[in-house]
């Protein structure tokens, strides 16, 4: 519990809630928008806190033993965050990914200390997950499986939801959350249902890949959102509305909030901001709060 307690303190001190006055003024919006800036760690994304928090919760519950190998099917930002957090806490890391994963990404992960095991790209994500489960079983490792592991939303029930209410005093009427692994929308949504049920929970996905809204499934350019399927972590009963935002709108909102409020939001954060703007313009909220789950690199 001590490790997770340290992470509570980290989030409260380093993930502020800010009001996006410049962006709202730029668009002459009939209300205000808040943003929870969840990107203070090494990768510049919310994945840093999630990786460290899931490891802490697994250790707390006895699922993860001291020095036990950690296995995951991932090559993205979560893979980087998990490798850093696991190696820092003394756990060897094995990552499974398609053979088509770029060499630069594999070199980065190996440089951080991860062992890479690849499978045919024809097997897709399911093949990587199957391989990760097999390696964990054979080598006595703990398979994270963060798309289908309740420790993902549990982290957000314990950390993200309480942090937001503590900083805002519940002074917002909707929370707008981009959906990737669905841990954030489920964990925060369930926490708000218990303590502030009047707050509307809005899930955001790419317009080009609508697994939650039942629309078209295709390629998109919003990193961290729209995996193309509904993760097991997703709890539809806490989501009041699903909003689809296209890649262009997400990138435009991210660029505008950088100019207007000096916040380097990534494209997924831009998607939540574009959705919040839509809520205000349609009169469906007066003071929404967006969770900005990553920052962009500004050179």
Largest sheet: 6 strands, mixed
CATH class category name of the largest domain? Alpha Beta
Strand content: 15-25%
Gross morphology is globular
Might you state the CATH topology name of the largest domain? Rossmann fold
Strand order of the largest sheet: 1-2-10-7-8-9
Q: Calculate the terminal CA-CA distance, rounded to whole Å.
A: 39 Å
Could you name the ranges where pLDDT drops below 50 across 5 or more consecutive residues? 7-13
- Helical stretch count? 10
CATH architecture label name of the largest domain? 3-Layer(aba) Sandwich
Whole-number count of domains: 2
Average pLDDT, all residues: 92
Structural class of the helix and strand makeup? Answer: alpha/beta
What is the radius of gyration?
Answer: 19 Å
């Amino acid at each position: 519990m001590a490790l997770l307690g340290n992470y509570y303190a980290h989030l409260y001190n380093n993930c502020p809630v800010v009001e996006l006055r410049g962006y709202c003024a730029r668009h002459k919006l009939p209300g205000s928008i808040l943003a929870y800036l969840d990107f203070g760690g090494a990768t510049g994304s919310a994945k840093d806190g999630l990786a460290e928090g899931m490891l802490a919760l697994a250790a707390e519950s006895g699922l993860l033993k001291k020095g036990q190998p950690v296995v995951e099917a991932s090559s993205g930002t979560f893979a980087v965050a998990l490798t850093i957090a696991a190696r820092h806490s003394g756990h060897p890391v094995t990552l499974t990914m398609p053979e088509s994963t770029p060499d630069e990404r594999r070199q980065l992960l190996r440089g951080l200390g991860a062992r890479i095991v690849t499978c045919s790209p024809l097997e897709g994500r399911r093949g990587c997950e199957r391989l990760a489960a097999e390696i964990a079983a054979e080598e006595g490792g703990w398979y994270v499986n963060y798309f289908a592991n309740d420790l993902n939303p549990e982290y957000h029930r314990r950390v993200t939801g309480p942090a937001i209410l503590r900083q805002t005093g519940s002074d917002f009427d909707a929370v707008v959350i981009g959906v990737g692994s669905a841990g954030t929308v489920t964990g925060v949504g369930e926490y708000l249902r218990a303590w502030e049920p009047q707050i509307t929970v809005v899930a955001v996905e790419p317009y080009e890949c609508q697994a939650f809204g039942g629309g078209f499934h295709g390629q998109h350019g919003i990193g961290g959102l729209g995996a193309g399927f509904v993760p097991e972590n997703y709890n539809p009963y806490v989501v009041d509305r699903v909003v689809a935002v296209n890649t262009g709108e997400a990138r435009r909102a991210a660029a505008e909030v950088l100019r207007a409020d000096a916040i380097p939001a990534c494209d997924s954060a831009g998607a939540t901001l574009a959705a919040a703007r839509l809520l205000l313009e349609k009169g469906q909220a007066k003071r929404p709060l967006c969770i900005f789950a990553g920052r962009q690199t500004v050179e």
